[in-house]
Write the C-alpha cells for this entry.
Amino acid sequence: MGRGRRRAMLQLLLLSLLAFLCEIAEGSHPCDGISNNYNDWIGSARNVDVVVVGGGIAGLSAMKTFMENQVPNAVLLEAQDYLGGRVKTYREGSILVEDGAEWINGGSSNRLYGLAERLGALTQPLPDAEYDWRLKTSNGNDANEAGYDVAVEIFNECEEDSVLRQYRNTGYGQCYSERFDKRYNNGLTSPTEKSAWKHYLQMESIPTDALKTSSPVCKVFWDKDPDGKALVVTATRESYLAYYVLVTASVGHLKERHLQLFDPPLPAGYQSNLNRIELGVADKVQLGWQEPWWDKAQSRPLDLHIIFNKFELPSEKSWLYGIMEFLSIHQQTKMIQAFVTGDKARQMENLSSDVVKQHLLEHLRRVTKQDVPEPTFFRRSKWGQNIWMRGSYNSYIPVQGDKAGLRSRAPLAQPITNSKNGKVIHWAGEHTSDTRYGTVDGAMDSGETAAFAIIDDMDSLA
C-alpha cells in the first residue's frame, strides 16, 4: 500500500473517530442503540435469582446480605468503573481525597463507626485549638465572632433528628432562618453583617465474579416473561433473567431515565412519587500546595469561614457565593477544600477546570489578603453532570412534593408487583429511608432491608 493511500486511510479513520467523539459530546447515552425488543435478549439471557442494579452502598449492602444468607446466585451490575457510588476516593501519589461522603456522624451509634473501627480505619479529629481559625468577610476584613457563635448554635440544633424531622419537607434552610432572626443580637454588629451570617447558614464477603462494573443497566422488562421473571439488559449487551430485581440506583438517575429503563413503564403512582422527590447537588473543590501558605511557621490546618457582606462579584463568579468555608482536608495538611451546593454547584460544573481554579485563587487572595501561590493540585467533583447520579447530597421532598401527597419516603421503597402477582421489582437507596436519608448508613440499612424482604419472599414461595 502506497504512502498516499495509507495517509488517506489514516485521515478517514481520524475523521471517523472525530465524528464518534462529536456524537458523544452532543449528548448520546451509553444505552442508546440497545434494542427495546424483549425477544432480542431472552434467548441469550443468563438465569439468576437476583439482579442488583447499582454498586453503591445500598447495592453492596444488599449483596453482602444475599451472600451471608445463602443466596449465591445474585449478580450486581454497576454502570461506572468503580464500586461505592457517592462514596468515591481519589488517590494521586501521597494525596488522598474524597469526592463524596467523607465523615461518620453520630459516633458509636452509627453502624459505620463499628465497621471502621474493626477495619482499623478510624482517626480522631483535631481539637479546635490546632487549627489556624479565621473569620473573614468577603472583602477580607475580620468578621464579628458573635455571629459565628449564633450560627454554630443553630446549626447544631437543626442537625438533631427531633428538630430536623419538622423540616423534612422544607430543608435545613428554613430551620436556620426561623431561629436566626429570633436569637441574633442586632447590637453586636451591623445589619449588613447580620444579613451575611444569615446567608452563611443557608446553604458504601462478596465474590468478585458477582460484581460487574462498567455494566450500565439499560432495560428492565418486568412483566413480559410467562413465568413472571424480569429480564435485565446492559449496555454491554448482556442479559439476565431473574426472579427479582433490586434497584438501588440514584434517585436523580431514576427520575431522568425511568421511562427508558422500565418496560412496561412503572405504575403511574410510583412515577408520580418519583416526580415528587429531588436530589440535591453538593460538589467539592480541592486545592493543594507544596507548603501551607496560610501558616508557614507552624503548618496548622486551616479553617477559614467567609461571610458575604457585599454581593458584588461578576456573574461568572457568582457561584463563589455558595462557599462558606475552606477547611484543611483531614490528614492532608497542605490541602484545603470547600463545598459548593445547589444552583451554585451546577454553575461551577459548567465552567472549565482552569476557570474554576482561577476563580478560587482570586477569591482566596481577596479574602485572606495574602499572596496565595498557584496550587500544585486541583480537583473538583461534578456530581450533577454525572449521568448515573444527577446529584449527590441529599435527596429531599420539596414543598410541592409534600402538597402533592408524598409525605413519607415509604412509597418509594414499595415493591412493584407484576401481572403474575410477583414482587419482581424492589428498591433501596438513601432516598427510600425516612429516618436516615442522605447518609451512608441510611443507604446501607435500606439495602439490607430490601435484601431481607426478597429473602423472605423466596422462603414464602419455596
